[in-house]
Amino acid sequence: MSDNLPRRQVLRTAGALGLGAAAAGALSSTADASPDRVAAMNAQHGHGKLEIRKDPFGTTPEGVGVDVYTFTNGRTTISMLTWGATIQRVETPDRRGRVENISLGFDNLPDYAALSPYFGATVGRYGNRIAKGKFTLDGHTYQIPVNNGENALHGGTIGFDKKVWKAKVVKTDKVVGVAFTYVSPDGEMGFPGELTSTVTYTLDKQDNLRIDYLATVAGKPTVLNLTNHVYFNLAGEGTGSIDGHVLELKAAKYTPVDAGLIPTGELAPVAGTPFDFNTPTAIGKRIRDDHPQLVIGRGYDHNFVLSGKPDHDGLRFAARFWEPTEGRTVTVHTSQPGAQFYSGNFLDGTFQGIGNKSYRQGDAFAFETQHFPDSPDHPTFPSTVLRPGQTFTSTTIYTFGTK
Ligand code: GLA
């Protein structure tokens, strides 16, 4: 599992990673392959060997070691950090078999700690916003430190994305991945109750990246909203705008927001608006329309009320993104009631990512499956309360493919 290559080189590809003949062959020999040969190879390596390795990634200022786990099915290779249980890289072939990293991130820990707008992170205790950081539960009022104007975003100033999670390798004959666990003490970031969260990321031989969330609380009831904040550009990280990506999003309604991106409480129909992606539509087609919600969000930064039918392991189809030039797709299924579709509006070119390219506005999208934002302050929204003795579970699957 160890070698003496510099870290950048080590992280390059499954071939360099020494992940074994099947993985290295599948990933490195696809470069100039014809579509037919790739399809044949994909079929072959789709049943390829599942492999995983662990390498040191960095050390926090407090002296805690952070590891990177890299797992592959011979075609798709995922790298994840124990920092924030973060998806660092997703390397997957395009329709001609060319493998690129399609996920935004950094190659070093200090950049994650200082700059990251939640790239690939597991977000909690409460993903998305809580108005003024305040909510009342069982007659007690709780205050979360605000970090987004007057509101709390993604768990407050130091959310789960900035914690080092414990990692345990998961490997069966069907899947490979990592189970990450973080215990959040009672009162951390103002939230009540000691919350134990285990988030298990596994890759199967069909390119399904499955995320299983499980949480229990001790001592007091709490609220929670766990998600992952991976950003994708399906043409490859750092290659420019996602305006041309085509999105199909199964939602009849969305939750309009005020100027602070807090839901007004209304569930508004998408029909006849730039928020209707029930028919596949390029993301950039209407993003500059003068719809007031697009002005508030500087683009799409809204929670959609998912309305697809369960059709995949009991999970509902939520969305499919397709990049027509290279042909990559990512399809999302989830048990969650909502998803925040964010068109990378706040990326402003101020830093460079893992491939040394600046990320500018609209260079990536995130699709954060979740409960609705600010649910603790909206009794009409599906509840985000978790009580001692209860177990919270949810599942989201990202499926990588080509079309
Ligand atoms: C979420 C929010 C956005 C933005 C990003 C992180 O998607 O809804 O407004 O804050 O996180 O930059």
From TrEMBL:
Pfam families the UniProt entry points to: Aldose_epim (PF01263)
Enzyme Commission identifier(s): 5.1.3.3
Enzyme class: isomerase
Catalysed reactions, as listed in the record: alpha-D-glucose = beta-D-glucose
Keywords, alphabetical: Carbohydrate metabolism, Isomerase, Signal
Pathway annotation from the record: Carbohydrate metabolism; hexose metabolism
Signal peptide (residue range): 1-33
Family: Belongs to the aldose epimerase family.
Protein's name according to its UniProt entry: Aldose 1-epimerase
Origin species: Kribbella ginsengisoli
